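To whoever picks this up:

The nightly regression suite flagged Beta-lactamase-related domain-containing protein as changed. Nothing in the input moved, so I suspect the structure step. Input below, exactly as stored in the fixture:
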Amino acid sequence: MATNRLNKLDKIFNQATNSKQIHQAVLLVENTSGDFSFNKGYGGMEVDSPMILASITKLFTTTCIFALQEQGKLSLDDQVTKYFDRTMLSGLHVYRGQENSYDLTLSELLFQTSGLPDVFEEGKASAKNRVVDEDFYINFDESVAWVKKLKPHFLPRTTKKAYYSDINFDMLGEIITKVNSSTLAEAYKQFIFEPLSLSNTYLPENEEDFVPNVYHRNKIIHRPKFIMSSGASGGCITTARELMIFIKAFFGGKLFSKDILDKLPLHNKLQASMGPIYYGSGYMRIPLSQLITMYTGKGELMGHSGSSGSFAFYYPFKDLYFVGDVNQLANASLPIRLTMKLAMMTK
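Regenerated output under the current build:
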């Protein structure tokens, strides 16, 4: 049975890397105990190759929020006015003439239910379009000012609505630094890197910190300034091997109590452009019994993907973890589709 599963994983990975969109890739699959393991690289990428985590970084930010909550240093019910000046917040969330900026809570940031717009994806002048052409640095205050120029999508706490936006996690990152009296990089080290002995995972802080290249279609681009400015919403670097250690710890209760995730069951479907993805307490959930799979899948994927092609998901139905990277900025659906195929084939 194990041999059959290995053959299926190998076949799916080979099919994926035959795509003209993928020039480099790496895949690592394990069960919780690690007695089942499969890994394969393509185009020079291996399990110890540096990779851009992009939005999987949000799982690190979530970990810090939960750890600080366990220490009693913050609450998900806290309003953002506890951590930010009202002048800074003013105009951030104005929906149909109503100012909602001061009513936002940490929970709404974490669950992507604030309704705030996303500067990375929205508009012709989006950060995603700009970063294809040039490398640039944008600080937190500039990100907030950029968000204020866009329109929120709904009122905070609107039932059954979620909207994926990086600013939610950028704000959580700022809150972590204030509550922990440290930089975000120091908080990551304290709550994640050191407890898990991750020596090749880091948040770039200066030009000396290595940032890998990423493909945009057939073009190789290098964007260290943008990665450094992405911080809590998407700035981390790691390897597939260390990402596997982390994702097992995240869902395994090694970094914070598993009860936290069990007590926060609320997940809402994201905007249509995000496909079949639900979002909740800092991570994605992708049910496999949906139209996209012709309702033939079982269970769900839990974890996160990144716009650079990275992915880290747990499939409880088969006790399997999928991590890796397809290193392609032009198609954010690639890692999602690959992981779904991997899960569907491991029967």
